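Weekly structure sync - notes
Attendees: PM, LS, DV (DV joined late)
Agenda: review two folding runs queued last week.

Item 1: First target. Sequence and structure tokens pasted below for the record.
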Amino acid sequence: MSDQPTYNRVLLKLSGEALMGRRDYGLDTETISRIAADISDVVRLGVQVCLVIGGGNIFRGVSAAASGMDRAQADYMGMLATVMNALAMQNALEKRGVPTRVQSAIPMETVCEPYIRRRAERHMEKGRVVIFAGGTGNPFFTTDTAAALRAAEMGCEALLKGTQVDGVYSADPRKVPDASRYDELTYLEVLSRDLAVMDAAAISLARENALPIIVFNVHAPGAFAQVMRGEGRFTRITEPA
């Protein structure tokens, strides 16, 4: 087994739901601690890591807008939820001795740094994990789009999407037992087949920047480090060769 990582700098996208564990909402400290342990293992491989975390475990702007709330206002509330998740993950990582910085697209300097691209790059060069909070700072954009944007800005070699299953399927395998699993896909296949990986804006942004998307099961202990070594089960989304 090689300990040499495939990538030197990556962005890991986590949904807010990934932090819930078996709870119906909010944060599960055991789940956050386990994910932090996996991130710590990857940092020890020498990989520069940054994160974007969603806020759906606390507040989901789209569903609030569907129930009558102003969409922009709801999205701003969702962005604040991502800051709470980022601070929780920062705490878990630093308990493991991993130096971490949170940067928010919505300035709130009492609790975290404002997003400054050059500063974020410098943190990563020094071995710090940077957690990008507040989405893009604009309503109507998802945290998936924020992840693709930040990955492109940071010059990441891959965008990893940590999900509940071990790759991309033709349908939700938890609901459709005979759903087909893909090892490799192109950006256009994801868009044309309407596969629920990321929203279209995120996929298009990744495609424009030739940024591979790797989808894996974030709940499988050690899976993040395995993917970094090119091992384990995952789906890779790129341009056709």
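Item 2: Second target, run right after the first with the same settings.
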Amino acid sequence: MFLNLSNHPSINWSGKQLQQASIYGELIDMAFPFINPAWNTKEVHLLVNEYAAKIILLKPKAVHIMGEMTFTLALVHLLQKGNLLCLASTTVRKVSESNNVKISQFEFIQFRPYLDE
């Protein structure tokens, strides 16, 4: 199973991204949680532990994690300790301008493993 934990549901992914995810099996979306910017470290870690437990029970082959950085870093470290493959998506940002309005489009390139400690 390929678990997508992000704010970008797989229904909106490109064919290339879907194809690369399919290498790991069934694609499952899990919405990235809201991380209150006023929370302290302990509050973030409580949510990290909750999500780690949910993910470990699912036994995915790979977890795509993209979102709020402190939560993501802590969750990746926990999942890696459990020998789960954690991936980030890499993109090329294409910016165009029309009538003084910048429009950004992102082209998926690959999934890249998060580095271990």
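Discussion on item 2: The chain has one domain: 2-113.
Action: LS to circulate a short write-up before next sync.
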